[in-house]
Amino acid sequence: MTDRLPPRPLPDLIVCPQCDATYKLARPGHGQRAVCARCHTVLIMPHSKAGIQIIAVSVAIVVLVIAATVFPFLTIKVAGTQNSVSILDAALAFSDGPLIALSLSTAALIIFIPLLRVLLALYVLIPVVLDRMPAKGSRRAFRLSEALRPWSMAEIFAIGCAVALVKITDLADVTFGPAFWMFAILVVLVVAQDNFMCRWTVWKSLDGLRKSEPRK
Amino acid sequence: MSETTPIITAREMGVVGCRRCTQVWPQGTEICGRCGKRLQLRDHKSLQRVWAWWSVGMLCYIPANMYPMLSTRTLFTVQQDTIVGGAIELFTHGAPFVAMIILFASVVIPLGKFFAIAYLAISVQRRSAASFGQRHLLYEVVEYIGRWSMIDIFVVAILSSLVQLRSLAAIDPGPASLFFALSVIFTMLSAQSFDSRMIWDMQSRDKGEASRGH
Ligand SMILES: [Zn+2]
Ligand SMILES: [Zn+2]
Q1: d(CA B212, CA B214)
Q2: What sign does the dihedral A61-A65-A66-A67 (CA atoms) show?
Q3: Which candidate, B195, B198, B163, places its Cα nearest to that of A84?
Q4: How many Å lie between the centroid of ligand 1 and the Cα of residue B7?
Q5: What's the structural domain count of chain B?
Q6: Is domain A1-46 classified as CATH 1.10.150?
Q7: Residues, beta carbon < 5 Å, ion ligand 2
Q8: Which tens digit of pLDDT belongs to each residue from B105-147?
Q9: Does residue B142 fall inside a structural domain?
Q10: How far is the first Cα of chain B from the last one, in angstroms, to the nearest whole number?
Q11: Domain residues for B1?
């Protein structure tokens, strides 16, 4: 093998990841967006103070996830008999035989993956916002967080709750526990956090890592 | 679509863009130096993976509709409902709106998704009546909406953990729930395997032919 120079990035260009259209990079101002002219994928959407806001929202999400998981979520009452469940109980409802795999994946989809993604975002963004060197393994952390994005399904679970409630209202009395309200706020925050983060800006800020942490 | 300046693709420019972090590299670069993703001008194995996940997803969708999704036990009766059966039940018991949600999330979306992915995978290899923009929109809708099919699984999870009232009433998940969840996961993987850049390649080819013709 010859000692080839490592390939140099072309920082003046940006390629749309969805349709391969190439543009000269023009960074939009805060609150504006750079959109692919061909397929309308949003390429860059910086917000001022986004970092701090995302961190604040993320901390709130962590607290809420833990609280919402532990406290009772829904209580059902029929003729004197009652049953309270937490979100974890709901996730682990598929408990017999091969369905246990479904239990574990449900728990992952509605609790652990959203939580993990938020923790990863905190790990990546805190040093960036404080103008420090990005934390070790930041790029791997952000990569994992991005890969998990479609598998974070807290908001879908929330709609599932609404459907389930309608299904049993004429069968029984259902009351909401504290976790129900926490979860409702949580879903709004998770969606907001996700829509607020500009991936391009985050990757750009992790760029400074290259000098201090040589690859391979 | 209004395009003021003609679009140049990365392939035509001799560069390759990272699909994860959008960093641009000279063609021939193998790994993105910023985020570590493997750089490919076009993912040629993409269609194979799309069809592989698509078929497994389809295979799981069949038993998901044949086996019961829920079994409801009350004092005197045990009732087992399939996805469609449960929705019909809801419809006749005065909750048509919820029945529509369930039918939409568990039948219309999954079937529509199978058709849409198959159509996209076939259309990148031959000419299609739909415009590039329309097909790209279809792809984005498929990617976005696929996850929502999990609603029914979550409904089953909530019901079967909540309605456990000893002898009075109990709701338990049926085997269809596992197959249905697998089907959703496999179709999500199928859609994720699709390299949407291929939709637009025909446009570049058309453009090339047109400019050669003059
Ligand atoms: Zn594009
Ligand atoms: Zn990259």
Answers
A1: 6
A2: positive
A3: B163
A4: 10
A5: 2
A6: no
A7: B 18, 20-21, 23, 32, 34-35, 37
A8: 889 989 999 999 999 999 888 777 778 889 999 999 999 888 8
A9: yes
A10: 23
A11: 1-41
